[in-house]
C-alpha cells in the first residue's frame, strides 16, 4: 500500500497578521460601547473613581431613574418627541431632495448648471452661519419653541449633500425607460413617481439613514429652538439630567444614553445593506 503525501498549503503569516490587526481594531472601536454599557450599571461612587470596566455589582436602579425622565417628563415622552422630529426630517428630506435631484438630473431648463453649482457650493457653508437669520425668521413667524423650525426646512430641499447624492444616482439610470414612458403619454411627474423613484430606492434609503442619525443626535439646533421641557428630546434631556439634581447623577445619565442609542442602532441594522448599496451605486454611476 502506497502512501501519498498530502500537500498542505503554507501558512500565510501576512493574512494571519491582517486578521489579528482587524480584530484589534474592532476591539478598540467597540470598547467605548462596552464602557458605556458597563458604566450605565455602575454605582455612583464607581463611575469616576474606578477605572475598572466591569462594576463591582449591577446597579439596575440607574435605568429605573432614567425611565423616570427629567423635569417630570418621562423617557417615553422624550423618546416620542425625538421620533417625531427625526421622522419628520426623514420624510421631508426624502421628498424634497428627490424632487430637486430629479429636476437637476433629468429636466432641461435655463441656468440649470449655475444653479446646481451654487447648490453644491452651499455644502461648504457652515450651519452656524445661517442659524441666526433662520432664528429671526422663525421667531417673527411665531414658530420658536415648536417643532416646525426643526422639520419645515427639510421639506425645502435645504440639504445639498443629499440632493447631490441622489443626482449622482439618477444620472446612472437609463434614459430609455423615461423615453418609453413619454411615448406612452407620461408626463414628468408621472415618470418621476412611477419609474425613477422606485429605481432610486438605495439612494433614498441612504438619505433616510443619515438624516435620521444626524437629526437624532442633533443637540445645538434643538437647544436653540426648544424651551419647554415637555418638548425636549432625549438629546436635550441628557444635558438636563445632570442639572436636575444637586449631585452628578452619572449612572442614570449613562443609562439614558444607552436608551437613546438603541433606536439608532436598530435603524442602522435594519437598513445597512441598502446603505452600502446606495453609497456604492452613487459613487460608481453618473
Automatic annotation (TrEMBL):
Signal sequence, renumbered to the chain: none
Cellular compartments annotated: Cell membrane
UniProt domain ABC transmembrane type-1: residue ranges: 79-271
Domain of life: Bacteria
Topological type in the membrane: Multi-pass membrane protein
Transmembrane annotation, as ranges: 16-38, 83-104, 116-138, 150-170, 191-216, 249-271
Major localization listed first in the record, in broad terms: membrane
Protein name: Carbohydrate ABC transporter permease
Amino acid at each position: 500500500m502506497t502512501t501519498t503525501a498530502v500537500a498542505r498549503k503554507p501558512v500565510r503569516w501576512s493574512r494571519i497578521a491582517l486578521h489579528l490587526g482587524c480584530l484589534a481594531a474592532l476591539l478598540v472601536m467597540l470598547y467605548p460601547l462596552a464602557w458605556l454599557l458597563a458604566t450605565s450599571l455602575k454605582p455612583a461612587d464607581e463611575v469616576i473613581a474606578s477605572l475598572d470596566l466591569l462594576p463591582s455589582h449591577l446597579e439596575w436602579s440607574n435605568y429605573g431613574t432614567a425611565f423616570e425622565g427629567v423635569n417630570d417628563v418621562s423617557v417615553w415622552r422624550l423618546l416620542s418627541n425625538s421620533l417625531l422630529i427625526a421622522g419628520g426630517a426623514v420624510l421631508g428630506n426624502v421628498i424634497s431632495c428627490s424632487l430637486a435631484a430629479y429636476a437637476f438630473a433629468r429636466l432641461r431648463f435655463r441656468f440649470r448648471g449655475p444653479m446646481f453649482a451654487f447648490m453644491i457650493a452651499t455644502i461648504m457653508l457652515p450651519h452656524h452661519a445661517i442659524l441666526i437669520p433662520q432664528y429671526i425668521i422663525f421667531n417673527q413667524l411665531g414658530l420658536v419653541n415648536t417643532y416646525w423650525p426643526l422639520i419645515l426646512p427639510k421639506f425645502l430641499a435645504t440639504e445639498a449633500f443629499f440632493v447631490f447624492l441622489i443626482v449622482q444616482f439618477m444620472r446612472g439610470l437609463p434614459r430609455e425607460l423615461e423615453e418609453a414612458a413619454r411615448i406612452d403619454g407620461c408626463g414628468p411627474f408621472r415618470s418621476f413617481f412611477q419609474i425613477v423613484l422606485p429605481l432610486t430606492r438605495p439612494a433614498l434609503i441612504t438619505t433616510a439613514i443619515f438624516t435620521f442619525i444626524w437629526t437624532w443626535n442633533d443637540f445645538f439646533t434643538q437647544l436653540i429652538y426648544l424651551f419647554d421641557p415637555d418638548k425636549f428630546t432625549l438629546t436635550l434631556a441628557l444635558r438636563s439630567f445632570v442639572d436636575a439634581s444637586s449631585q452628578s447623577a452619572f449612572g442614570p445619565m449613562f443609562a439614558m444614553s444607552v436608551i437613546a442609542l438603541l433606536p439608532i442602532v436598530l435603524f442602522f441594522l435594519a437598513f445597512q445593506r441598502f446603505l452600502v448599496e446606495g453609497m456604492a451605486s452613487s459613487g460608481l454611476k453618473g
